[in-house]
């Protein structure tokens, strides 16, 4: 319990000040020891003692509850911090996965574009070969028809020339 120096004259020497403060403290302690005993309290004021005990018990319970709440709050803060760290690590992992998927998709798009260009080249080559092939077939047919139609006359002409 702190010593109250408010009632002590400050102009006295230190030893006298200290003795006065200690005497005052002892008087207070003596008065505190003089609390009325259970027998000395009149019966009509016994409820005050019971209320005092109930209030002391309630204060102890409240202190215990506040201590428990403080412990739970510290635990919740720890869980929150750990959850934040875990969320941050999961976000980093998700970002890496998205980055990897974007890279893979870019490669697939490049591969599909390459395949598409090759298919277009083959299609263009088909378009140039088919007309040439058709022209060759038509030319061959025309030549064959011409030979077939003119063959009897050529044979007749060759026979007359050899005669």
The tally of strands reads 0
State the distance separating the first and last CA atoms.
159 Å
Assembly annotation: single chain
Strand content: under 5%
Number of helices: 2
Could you characterize the architecture of this molecule?
- The protein is mainly α.
- It contains 2 helices and no strands.
- The longest helix is centred in the middle third of the chain and has 117 residues, at 46-162.
- It is rod-shaped and about 175 Å long.
- It starts with 13 loop residues before the first helix and ends with a helix.
Provide a compact summary of the structure.
By secondary structure, the chain is mainly alpha-helical. 84% of the residues lie in helices and 0% in strands.
Topology:
Blueprint: H1 14-33, H2 46-162
Which characteristics define this entry?
single chain; 163 residues; mainly alpha; rod-shaped
């Amino acid at each position: 319990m702190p010593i109250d120096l408010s009632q002590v004259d400050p102009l006295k020497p230190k030893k006298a000040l200290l003795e006065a403060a200690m005497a005052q403290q002892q008087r207070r302690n003596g008065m505190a020891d003089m609390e009325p005993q259970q027998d000395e309290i009149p019966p009509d004021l016994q409820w005050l003692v019971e209320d005092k005990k109930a209030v002391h018990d309630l204060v102890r319970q409240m202190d215990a509850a506040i201590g428990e709440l403080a412990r739970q709050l510290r635990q919740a803060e720890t869980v929150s911090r750990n959850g934040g760290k875990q969320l941050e690590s999961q976000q980093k992992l998700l970002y890496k996965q998205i980055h990897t998927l974007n890279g893979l998709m870019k490669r697939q798009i490049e591969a599909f574009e390459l395949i598409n260009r090759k298919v277009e080249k083959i299609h263009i080559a088909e378009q140039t070969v088919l007309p040439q092939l058709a022209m060759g077939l038509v030319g061959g047919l025309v030549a064959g028809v011409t030979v077939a139609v003119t063959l009897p006359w050529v044979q007749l002409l060759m026979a007359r020339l050899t005669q």
